[in-house]
Amino acid sequence: MDRSVERISRVPVEIRNAWAARHGEEAAERLAAAEDFADAIKEATIPPNTTETYAKGWKVWRRFCAEQGLPETEGSRGALVAFTAWMLDRGRTSPGPGGTLGYAPTSAHSHLTAAIVGLRERGHPVGKDIHSEARARLEAIATQLAKAKERRGRGKAPAADLDNLHRVAAACDDTLTGRRDLALILVGFHFASRASEVSALLLADITTHARGIKVAVVTGKTARSVRTVAIPYNNDEPEICAARAWERWRDAYACTEPRAAAFPRIDRWGHIGDAMSPDSVTAAVARVASRSGIPIRWTGHSLRSGLATEGRKNGKDPVNIAKQGGWAPGSKAMLGYMQLADEWDDNAAAGLRRPQKGNS
Predict the structure, then answer these.
(1) What percent of the chain stands above pLDDT 70?
(2) Within a 10 A sphere around the Cβ of 63, how many other Cβ atoms?
(3) Strand partners, 1
(4) In this protein, which residues make up the domain named Tyr recombinase (predicted)?
(5) Is 205 helix (H, G, I), strand (E, B) or coil?
(6) In terms of DSSP bridges, do strands 227-232 and 212-217 run parallel, antiparallel, or are they unpaired?
(7) CB neighbourhood size of 128 (10 A)
(8) Do 107 and 49 lie in a common domain?
(9) Which of 32, 53, 176, 294 lies in the 20 to 30 Å Cα band around 11?
(10) Are residues 42 and 171 in the same domain?
């Protein structure tokens, strides 16, 4: 048997055989091993939530292919365009909000990306033109849905704000869970956290200094979001001071193991468990916000958008806001949050008046 096809590898057989023809069978085996090693490195460095998102999206693609009788390893132009239409029309397995079986456009985008990534990983890359057309069709159908007044999905997470942080501070009691929840929300807000970043924090990642605390985010979603940020003491509004809230929680937690979770699970009897999951962080934020009487439903992402929005309102430099939240300079997401702060004060339609006529 040809040695170039004996090895179990993700590298397609035709590519390995071509390498063998050009460089010899031993070199082909080494090249294939290098490809597999590169894949292993990639998998080890992809954040778990991204891996989970891709896995969910690939399942949706497989379900579509099974329903339509299409091979799941063929990402043709027709198949991917049909996939986008199917997702927006009837892709869900159970009705969503409003009874629709179609995915929200943002979810459909995510699943399309997952399908394309999954095809590439399985040795069936999708051409750039095909990829672009599928996305363009998805955008076009989503625009038609919007024109028809059909709203899907939750929309953007409402931004946490300082007034409502005071409500949260007043609603969190002095129990172990109350101290943890307040510290989680205030610390998370002040470094513009993702739920996954809060979930992954260890005690050693949060250190106390003369002027406040520092948070080392070592599991960021991107290279830029891996960061160490300072959170100063807030002497003007100590009720929502993240550094003080962290110190009160740390003292109550009384854990001396540096690698213990910074924000662990706590059951109804006060027993401390392992680290909260990202979903648990999101649920805690929503639960505390609801209990505080906040009229809009906060999510884990409300803390992230809130720092950008409130920072802008307080005149902070966008460069410093980007550093604190791990955004790229000029990030569209960050600028979108800032626009929420500017929509009334820095508004093109605000204060319009006729020019004053000069004296002749």
Answers:
(1) 90
(2) 14
(3) none
(4) 155-350
(5) helix
(6) antiparallel
(7) 8
(8) yes
(9) 53
(10) no
What six digits make up the tokens of 357? Answer: 């006529």
202-255 pLDDT, tens digit per residue, is: 999 999 999 999 999 987 667 777 899 999 999 999 999 999 999 999 999 999
Residue 45 belongs to what domain range? 3-147
Show the tokens assigned to 62: 């497989």
Residue 187 φ then ψ, to 5°: -65, -45
Secondary structure of residue 316 in the 3-state scheme: coil
The phi and psi torsions of 100 (rounded to 5 degrees) equal -75, 145
The answer as to whether 352 is a domain residue is no
Cβ–Cβ < 8 Å for 103, 88: yes
Task: Find the DSSP H helices in the chain.
Answer: 13-23, 25-45, 48-68, 77-90, 105-121, 128-147, 162-171, 176-190, 195-200, 242-253, 278-291, 300-313, 318-325, 332-342
Question: Is the pTM for the entire model greater than 0.85?
Answer: no
Task: Please state, as a whole number, how many other Cβ atoms lie within 10 Å of the Cβ of residue 267.
Answer: 9
Token pair, residue 16, equals: 């390995």
Q: How far apart are the C-alpha atoms of 151 and 46, rounded to whole Å?
A: 32
How far is C-alpha 331 from the chain's CA centre?
Answer: 14
Q: What is the mean pLDDT of the chain?
A: 87
Count of domains for the chain: 2
Tell me the pLDDT band of 72, cut-offs 50, 70 and 90: very high
Predicted local distance difference test score (pLDDT) of residue 154: 59
Q: Classify residue 350: in a domain, yes or no.
A: no
Give yes or no: residues 124 and 197 share one domain: no
Instruction: Tell me the three-class secondary structure of 212-277, residue by residue.
Output: EEEEEECCCCCCCCCEEEEEECCCCCHHHCHHHHHHHHHHHHCCCCCCCECCEEECCCCCEEEECC
Half-sphere exposure of 307 (CA within 13 A, CB side): 28
